[in-house]
Automatic annotation (TrEMBL):
UniProt keyword Transferase present: yes
Domain N-acetyltransferase: 19-183
GO molecular function annotation: acyltransferase activity, transferring groups other than amino-acyl groups
Record-given protein name: GNAT family N-acetyltransferase
Amino acid sequence: MPLEHYSIQELSSTDLTSDLLKHFNRYQEVRRCLRQENGEWVLKDIAFTEQWVEALKEEIVRVDLMNCILAGGIVWGVYDSGNQMIAFASLLQGLFGSSKDYLQLMQIHVSFEHRNKGLGKKLFERCADKARVMGARKLYISAHSSEESQLFYARIGCVDAVEINKKLAEYEPYDRQMEYALYS
């Protein structure tokens, strides 16, 4: 489906219904992941399947997305022609880092059936544009270590974070802490 057949909307708290992600398919068959060895990122054969059960989808809406909006952050949803949410991204409010340069791109996900169509890139661009308006110089991403996720971030221009957010790194120890410069 071409990009013009999707609509991207900024969500409000009233949009965050318990069934918002009912048709969202997080499925990802991971075969290789990046791991740090001696200061270098190395691809390792680490296989597992990512899949969200309904209870987790409801929790993501009720906790992650709602808290993001209530704290002044932004959540975008991408809807297909049947008005089903098939992708979303969330940008947290609150600059951090030694120079208050960073805003966190908390989540960015595209439903399995809709990947590789440019939706993730469009959502990322929306987050970057809004982060500039909110005063950030960089986006901070605690990025899934799967090969596919890392390729996505690398293609967009993300690099290893100069400053590591210890809380995020400890919460997701296998994630790669990355940043995206909003100004060149």
